[in-house]
Write a structure and sequence with these properties.
Layout: H1 13-18, H2 30-33, E1 41-46, E2 52-55, E3 65-68, H3 75-90, E4 93-98, H4 104-109, E5 113-116, H5 133-147, H6 154-170, H7 193-206, H8 212-223, H9 241-244, E6 249-253, H10 260-281, E7 291-296, H11 299-302, H12 308-315, E8 321-327, H13 335-338, E9 343-346, H14 352-362, H15 366-373, E10 380-384, E11 395-401, E12 409-414, E13 427-432, H16 433-442, H17 447-459, E14 463-465, H18 466-475, H19 480-489, H20 494-509
Parallel strand pairs: 3-8, 3-9, 4-6, 4-7, 5-6, 7-8, 12-14
Antiparallel strand pairs: 1-2, 1-11, 9-10, 10-11, 12-13
Length: 522
């Protein structure tokens, strides 16, 4: 270690510090991150000083959270740990809007409830949840505009809004009143999309409307949601909206819905109901968070700045609600969310464009950027918008997120021959078991096939050759485009993927061949 000699005896310590001779490591002091364990959630220890980090909604500008990281970095494991500890500390309810059915088994194991849309449960799009019909019409119209191209067709949009209003009126509703009751004192049953379709079809059959093509297209749009077998939003609700947010751990499984648009429509509707519910409930003085809403890979609604996800982020603090948004692609999360969440957890991120987006959104240093690119499974950088301004960095590193159970990692071994030109060594790709299960379900595999594939890893001491893995997936009819996407998420280069497929073809034919370098298009 070198010696610092100060020749000017009148030089003050503040002068020395201003010259940057001694620089504090990028980590807040313990008093800012080591909270009261009875009123905070333990996450893990910091990478520099090994200090315990306890997260509390009281320390940050708002309780909302974003978590980003590539497939296998440990996001799902972190979310489960966070929700479990939030329940123990604050008795916080959790609603997981579960795109791929990834959390279903875990929620069952912890004694929670699973509600499966598309598998026997229905959500009436025209439910009111305490709202005025006039407000609900606007919400439905906004959802359709986010998820479809109806915004480009003003007349069809107007016709649809008008038909929804008429459906309420036909059922006896007054458009500007809340919680309307029938003659027996019971809440009135709302209409459904099938009633909306009837209004539009009656208008068409009357033959008096001057733009029949616009009307026919409006009918076609609504009919897509009312066909038998696809009328998940056109029947009376079987889901108790109040129970969604007050029943401990709840998984709203959307994997049974046929496409992304329907999943996003379900998620947006639930967020709209929750937003209205929290406004009506108002602020309570009780300690803690009442509800955490998890949106994992919900890019269709997390990216749009007009989405209710953004509105909840802007308003949720005063109602003791928190939104937890997670994605492996940070650019799928609106900058409005990043600029309004109190805490961002950055797990392993590899692609430069993702790092650019995060650095521009969160304004961390180049040093921190390099550290994030090197993170291993379960390691993370944390960005916190603290309630009070401090001279300390807002972004710091965790040596590991310490959860309730160990992360189970799987490994794919890539032989040297598949590595890009100029390299001579092989490499091992790692990812979390739960992330693999999630991907396989998204590829359309039934649960029993998912378990068969994961058991293949377990029997091989959690290591598989990447070629054997590809052959196994193709045996279960997984499309090569899906396999390509999975490998790209693990940062495998295009030319390497081509060579893996070539070797898989040779192996299936029982011959040995030379791989050729081919550049993937797109």
């Amino acid at each position: 270690m070198g010696l610092i000699k100060v020749k000017n005896k009148k030089l003050y310590s503040s002068d020395i510090a201003s010259r940057g001779i001694i620089t504090r490591p990028p980590e807040p002091p313990a008093e800012l991150i080591a909270g009261d364990p009875t009123n905070s959630i333990y996450i893990g220890r910091t990478a520099v000083f090994n200090e315990p980090f306890h997260w509390s909604y009281e320390n940050v500008t708002n309780p909302h959270i974003a978590a980003v990281g590539i497939s296998g970095a440990g996001k799902s494991y972190f979310i489960k740990t966070f929700l479990t500890r939030a329940y123990f500390v604050w008795k916080t309810n959790a609603l997981i809007i579960d795109w791929a059915g990834e959390y279903r088994d875990w929620v069952k194991q912890v004694g929670g409830k699973v509600l499966a849309l598309g598998k026997g449960s229905y959500l009436n799009l025209l439910d009111l949840a305490g709202m005025r019909p006039l407000d609900r019409v606007k919400q439905i119209s906004r959802s359709l505009e986010i998820l479809t191209d109806i915004g480009s067709y003003p007349e069809q949009k107007r016709l649809t809004e008008e038909a929804i209003e008429r459906a309420y009126v036909n059922k006896g509703f007054k458009m500007s009143e809340r919680n309307q009751k029938d003659a027996l004192g019971n809440l009135m049953a709302p209409p459904t999309l099938k009633n909306v379709l009837e209004v539009l079809e009656e208008k068409l059959s009357a033959g008096t409307y001057e733009f029949p093509v616009e009307l026919e297209n409006a009918i076609y749009r609504v009919k897509k949601f009312t066909r038998e077998g696809e009328d998940f939003f056109a029947q009376p609700s079987t889901i108790d909206l109040d129970a969604l947010i007050s029943s401990g751990m709840v998984d709203l499984d959307l994997s049974g819905l046929p496409d992304e648009t329907m999943r996003a429509l379900a998620a947006l509707s639930v967020l709209q109901f929750i937003k209205e519910k929290m406004r009506l409930t108002g602020f309570e003085k009780s300690k803690g968070l009442k509800l955490i809403i998890v949106l994992d890979e919900a890019w269709k609604i997390a990216k749009e700045e007009t989405s209710d996800a953004v509105m909840i982020v802007r308003e949720g603090r005063k109602y003791q609600f928190a939104l937890f948004v997670a994605s492996q692609n940070p650019t799928d999360i609106s900058e409005a969310i990043f600029s309004n969440v109190g805490t961002t957890f950055i797990l392993r991120v590899k692609f430069e464009k993702f790092l650019d987006y995060l650095q521009n959104s969160l304004n961390f240093s180049d040093y921190m950027r390099k550290q994030i690119a090197r993170l291993g499974v379960g390691q993370a950088a944390v960005n916190m918008a603290l309630q009070t301004s401090t001279p300390y960095p807002e972004t710091f590193l965790l040596s590991k997120i310490e959860g309730e159970e160990p992360v189970v990692e799987y490994f794919l071994d890539v032989k040297p021959k598949f590595v890009g030109e100029g390299e001579i060594v092989g490499k091992t790709l790692s990812f979390e078991r739960d992330d693999l299960r999630k991907k396989l379900r998204m590829f359309g595999l039934a649960d029993e096939k998912v378990e068969e594939i994961t058991s293949t890893f377990d029997k091989a001491n959690r290591h598989l050759d990447v070629v054997d893995f590809v052959i196994t997936l193709e045996r279960y009819d997984v499309d090569r485009n899906d396999i390509t996407g999975f490998l790209k998420d693990l940062s495998v280069e295009d030319s390497v993927i081509i060579n893996i497929f070539s070797e898989a073809d040779y192996k299936k034919l029982g011959v040995r061949g030379e791989s050729t370098e081919v550049e993937l298009s797109g």
